[in-house]
UniProtKB/TrEMBL annotation:
It comes from Chloroflexus aurantiacus (strain ATCC 29366 / DSM 635 / J-10-fl). The keyword Isomerase applies. Transmembrane segments: none annotated. This is Sugar isomerase (SIS). GO terms for molecular function: carbohydrate derivative binding; isomerase activity. The lineage of its organism: Bacteria, Bacillati, Chloroflexota, Chloroflexia, Chloroflexales. Keywords: Isomerase. PROSITE patterns: SIS. Coiled coil: none annotated. The keyword Isomerase applies. GO terms for biological process: carbohydrate derivative metabolic process. Gene3D superfamilies: Glucose-6-phosphate isomerase like protein, domain 1 (3.40.50.10490). Residues 30-186 form the SIS domain. SUPFAM superfamilies: SIS domain. InterPro entries: GmhA/DiaA, SIS_dom, SIS_dom_sf, SIS_GmhA/DiaA_subfam.
Length: 202
């Protein structure tokens, strides 16, 4: 088995081990956030920062339905001037929590993505979220780290190789965005059917 084949096989094996009940808990929390018109904040570092930005993009755009309210989703990784300002003037560990203190509203949801589960800035964001009563979610890898232990809802990818962890995180985020879009569409069906029935009676 060559290196490429081995990598693909390991990726499939890791995905098969994903705890689907944890994934469902995350999906339920996101759906409930949408129903109450809450904002979904996402953060991460390095490759996980890219995943956070991609996830917020998909939550915002992939889920659009012309007959439904749009999803509120913000990646705390996207404002580079603000991130560098907080890093320079204070410390890098505060780049996410300082943004949350300005943007968070009661009932919002905070999703932190970290392969190690130990990045200080995502841990602080979740700790702060827990203190103010936010719905907090930690998407992790390796042994889960502190993030998995303190988040109210956790999703743990059981692998120690960072590229594989990040691959599964990306798949998970795509699955969650697609699922939310389909839930929004399904929620409109009774309204559409009722409108058709009323129209047919006229």
């Amino acid at each position: 088995m060559n290196n490429l084949t081995s990598y693909v096989v390991q990726t499939c094996q890791t995905l098969e081990q994903l705890p689907l009940w944890e994934l469902q808990r995350v999906a339920d929390a996101i759906w409930e956030a949408y129903q109450r018109d809450a904002t979904i904040f996402v953060c991460g570092n390095g490759g996980s920062a890219a995943t956070a930005s991609h996830f917020a993009c998909d939550l915002s755009k992939w889920t659009i339905n012309p007959q439904a309210r749009r999803v509120r989703a913000i990646a705390l990784t996207d404002n580079v001037p603000l991130i560098t300002a907080w890093s320079n003037d204070q410390e890098y560990a505060d780049v996410f929590v300082e943004q949350l203190q300005a943007l968070y509203r009661d009932g919002d949801i905070i999703i932190a993505i970290s392969g190690s589960g130990n990045s200080a800035n995502v841990v602080r964001a979740i700790e702060w979220g827990n203190r103010v009563g936010a719905v907090t979610i930690g998407i992790t890898g390796r042994d889960g780290g502190r993030l998995y232990r303190i988040a109210k809802i956790g999703l743990h990818v059981k692998n120690n190789f960072m590229p594989l962890i990040e691959d599964i995180h990306s798949i998970v985020c795509h699955a969650l965005a697609v699922n939310l879009g389909r839930q929004i569409e399904a929620s409109l069906q009774p309204v559409i059917l009722q409108a058709k029935a009323v129209g047919g009676q006229q």
